[in-house]
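User: I've been trying to design a sequence by hand for this structure and keep getting stuck. Would you show me what you'd pick, starting by listing the structure so we're on the same page?

Assistant: Good idea, let's start from the same input. This is the structure you sent:
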């Protein structure tokens, strides 16, 4: 079987696998973003969550099969299963499925496990992404054989669910395609770093980019104190902005969706950045470079620049008061331009929430001395009137050359 290829462009901070930008995010952001969308149960969740996963996996695997033309139908599905495992999504088994239909077994699931961290008892399966990926994989395998594209003649139902406490997930498929928007990307040259620090960002980025962060025997990626996925950037973009547009249609304003999506960014910043800064990897590679809290800021920014999110640059840093981050080719703006065109408002929600989380961890909670990354600690920190908040001031998707977030005390 062909080895899965990663093309990491350190200049622009993008990681590409068969034409799809792939970015690292952890179980906390994945579950929170999905929960935000699920809570609006009056929306078409299938269209937002399942369709988005199907589209991005279909595009990626179609490209992969163009580069591997000798694969049989079953070998294509095996390849898709390897991609799923490689990226930390879990294990899916297509052995009981053929071109006429059948069942697919999810032996492990990142989303199934992550959803168990949410409050309350689930009533419905949480494996929306898994279902979408399976649909995209089957459509790509069929399309490359028959010449047809992804279409609505494939029906998938879920009978068992890891997220509901069962040992595995079971998907039954009966054997149909959306046209894909023309890609539009705006890029500018990334400026050199403005600050001289003790942090060797180039060493950090090259080291992290070379780490074998791939799915283990269970198809999961435990690293930096969390469970990572190498997720499709456009999956996040599609579900976030389809959610925003659906909320806007119902409520008459996008501001409610903005607040919810930035809050998901806060949770990501707290748990992902916090987990990284408490991890063995941080202690071994980055901590020896750090002499003050400002170095901690530059250290975590260096890590971000190895995650495929684009390139972050610290434009201004006033200790314990203010942080200005400029993000070049941030994946949210690039995806918005590609699929929805020019934005009429700021849309870099993960960037906004993540930057606030960074400042709250370092200067407010003081993670340099250790922080309890519990739910209780999160709410105590982010609901305090003295916490840091982020405000986006420039946006690539609105025509600026970069996206910018200013973080100050609330």
């Amino acid at each position: 079987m062909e080895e899965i290829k990663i093309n990491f462009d350190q200049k622009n901070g993008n990681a590409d696998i068969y034409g799809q930008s792939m970015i690292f995010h952890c179980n906390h952001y994945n579950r929170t973003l999905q929960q935000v969308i699920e809570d609006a149960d009056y929306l078409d969740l299938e269209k937002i969550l399942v369709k988005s996963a199907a589209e991005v996996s279909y595009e990626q695997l179609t490209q992969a099969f163009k580069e591997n033309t000798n694969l049989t139908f079953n070998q294509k599905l095996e390849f898709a299963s390897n991609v799923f495992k490689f990226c930390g999504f879990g294990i899916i088994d297509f052995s009981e499925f053929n071109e006429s239909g059948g069942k697919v077994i999810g032996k492990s699931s990142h989303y199934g496990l992550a959803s168990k961290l949410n409050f309350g008892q689930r009533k419905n399966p949480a494996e929306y992404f898994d279902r979408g990926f399976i649909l995209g994989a089957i459509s790509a395998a069929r399309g490359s054989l028959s010449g047809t594209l992804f279409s609505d003649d494939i029906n998938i139902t879920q009978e068992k669910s890891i997220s509901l406490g069962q040992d595995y997930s079971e998907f039954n498929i009966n054997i149909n395609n959306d046209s894909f928007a023309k890609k539009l990307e705006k890029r500018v040259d990334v400026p050199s770093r403005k600050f001289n620090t003790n942090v060797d960002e180039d060493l950090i980025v090259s080291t992290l980019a070379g780490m074998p962060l791939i799915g283990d025997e269970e198809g999961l990626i435990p690293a930096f104190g969390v469970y990572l996925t190498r997720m499709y950037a456009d999956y996040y973009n599609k579900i976030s902005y389809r959610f925003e547009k659906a909320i806007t249609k119902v409520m008459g304003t996008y501001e409610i969706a903005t607040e919810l999506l930035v809050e998901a960014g806060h949770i990501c910043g707290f748990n992902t950045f916090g987990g990284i800064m408490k991890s063995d990897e941080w202690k071994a590679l980055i901590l020896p470079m750090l002499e003050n809290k400002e170095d901690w800021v530059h250290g975590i920014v260096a890590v971000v620049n190895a995650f495929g999110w684009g390139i972050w640059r610290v434009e201004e840093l006033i200790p314990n008061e203010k942080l200005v981050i400029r993000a070049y080719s941030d994946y949210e703006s690039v995806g918005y331009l590609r699929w929805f065109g020019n934005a009429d408002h700021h849309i870099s929600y993960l960037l906004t929430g993540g930057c606030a989380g960074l400042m709250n961890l370092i200067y407010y909670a003081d993670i340099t001395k250790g922080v309890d990354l519990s739910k209780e600690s999160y709410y105590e920190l982010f609901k305090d009137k003295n916490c840091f908040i982020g405000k986006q001031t420039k946006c690539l998707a609105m025509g600026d050359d970069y996206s910018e977030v200013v973080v100050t005390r609330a």
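That's my pick for every position. To get oriented when you compare it with your attempt: The two ends are 53 Å apart (CA to CA). Residues 144-151, 176-186 have pLDDT under 50 and may be disordered.
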